TrEMBL record:
Higher taxonomy: Eukaryota, Metazoa, Chordata, Craniata, Vertebrata
MF terms (GO), sorted A to Z: copper ion binding; dopamine beta-monooxygenase activity; L-ascorbic acid binding
Subunit structure: Homotetramer; composed of two disulfide-linked dimers.
Protein name, as recorded: Dopamine beta-hydroxylase
UniProt record similarity statement: Belongs to the copper type II ascorbate-dependent monooxygenase family.
Pfam families per record: Cu2_monoox_C (PF03712), Cu2_monooxygen (PF01082), DOMON (PF03351)
Alphabetical list of Gene3D superfamilies matching this protein: 2.60.120.230, Copper type II, ascorbate-dependent monooxygenase, N-terminal domain
CDD domains membership: DOMON_DOH (cd09631)
Location(s) in or outside the cell: Cytoplasmic vesicle, Secretory vesicle, Chromaffin granule lumen; Cytoplasmic vesicle, Secretory vesicle, Chromaffin granule membrane
GO CC annotation terms, alphabetical: chromaffin granule lumen; chromaffin granule membrane; extracellular space
Cofactor field: Cu(2+)
Keyword Membrane: yes
Amino acid sequence: FTPPEPFADITIMYFTALAALMVILVASYQAPNNAVEVSSLKPNPSRLLPPLPMPFRVPLDPRGELQLAWNVSYTNQEIYMELRVAELRHGVVLGMSDRGELTNADLLVLWDSGTQSYFGDAWSDSKGHVSLDSQQDYDLIEAKQKAEGYYLLFKRPFSTCDPRDYVIEEGTVHIIYGFLDKPLASLEKLNLSEIRTGVQRVLMLRPDTPPPTLPPDVQMLDVVAPNVSMPNQETTYWCYIHNLPENLPKNHIVMYESVITPGNEAIVHHIEVFECSPDIPAVPGYSGSCDDKMKPKKLNFCRHVLAAWAMGAEAFYYPPDAGLAMGGPGSSRFLRLEVHYHNPLLISGRRDSSGIRLYYTPSLRRYDAGIMELGLVYTPVMAIPPKQHTFYLSGYCTSKCTQTALPSGGIYVFASQLHTHLAGRGVRTILVRGGKELEVVQEDQHFSTHYQVGDRRGDVLITKCTYNTEDRSEPTVGGFGIMEEMCVNYIHYYPRTQLELCKSHVDQGYLQKYFSFINRFHGNDQCVCGEVSVTEQFSQLEWDEFTGEVLDSLFNTAPISMHCNQSTASLFPVSPQSRTHTPATIDCQATN
């Protein structure tokens, strides 16, 4: 029997389609091209392992479910990384992008198809869709379940020559992460916008130099929170008064480092230790919120910075010729510890005893070192419009302040620490002398002879911060909250002066004129300028391109209010003034 020709054609089409369907179904359950099947990974004795232990580590998420540790081989231009997953479900995503975006990111993905687990180098497109990379540059060394969790050990070069890969360079690296809660039949079905994700900022490339040797008579002092119960709110600044021994002779702090309670590494955002004014004979004990209106007023006279640490920073060493004075005549025996907790998941019941460990010696060095705070005053009068790809704010330490406060021989700056909050994209400080600009700020927080600059009377120091608020619909004002912004540079220098803080903000009278003008421009004749808070005035504006451009012009041209503060919290006699220089571009990355 020979079927009619049309029927034969239909039969052939049917079986062809069925065969194609079978190929697709089989392919969907086969190992993805280039990906590593984790269960088939065999130990390779010839593979070079990194020196253990991993010297650098950081928690990635507030609950401590992910921890990244790494080691750097400058010889091979490679980074060895170890990712610990406390409880592995169906996979995990780790990656890097320019500013922590989920789009156009360089990724590695561990996922299971329901029957097998795979590891692969991947990338995300402009919509967050994930694809396996044709060039696999993450080399999986080991995958193992241990008592503390599931461990992935892998490596990759600094630069891979793959246009889809992130180039690991000096400065802040934005690490993104995500959790897979269900199997993936195909990696191409993954979209990062549909899973639980987060971002962490780290300095991956650290100086390839051994730490300085501490003197043999060095002693340690821990200034830590007294086992406090962290409030279940997003932002908390906790203050605690620590008493030094009575009649402590003068010592030099030669190093300090953070002491973080295990499990709280992703919540403790930054820490500062202040010495109280020696003019205050006694400071009452206190442990509580720094914002509490009932806290002792004498805490406001504890302004002299002894140590400052932010998430991701390493131990800080002083140069051989200088140390930070502690104890002795003219000092206070009262220290104020300030810990910033960032608790976005509103975790409750967590106890904390984090703080700073000071290393000090009675063998005094040639110079007393000091720390000076540059940038913008923590005030809502400095704000960033919403939906901004790039917006700049600048803080000034003017010539009038340095002329008044610095010694005739000037000071020697040997290190700096930069700080913004989440919208910050970069910080730079420039030194202006005789109308010429000299670079001051470097990202290395360790002393180095390559990064030293003298600062003299009459110099101008300008700290300029870059922000991005494309993901925000409301203005971002200056302040202490994590969703508010800061622009800070702590410079370390010697010899020490009484100048503790040299910062500015726009003149508030001119800001009120701005509010009045913008409201009238948009037809709002009932201006409430001055009747409500500055934060509320910013939020009530109609934000369009014109409103943002006028604000940018105001910040760049209006007179400024100068804060030229002594360590006693009193002001040097510097009046509001106009800026005298417009900064050029010398970029450094911010630490968040």
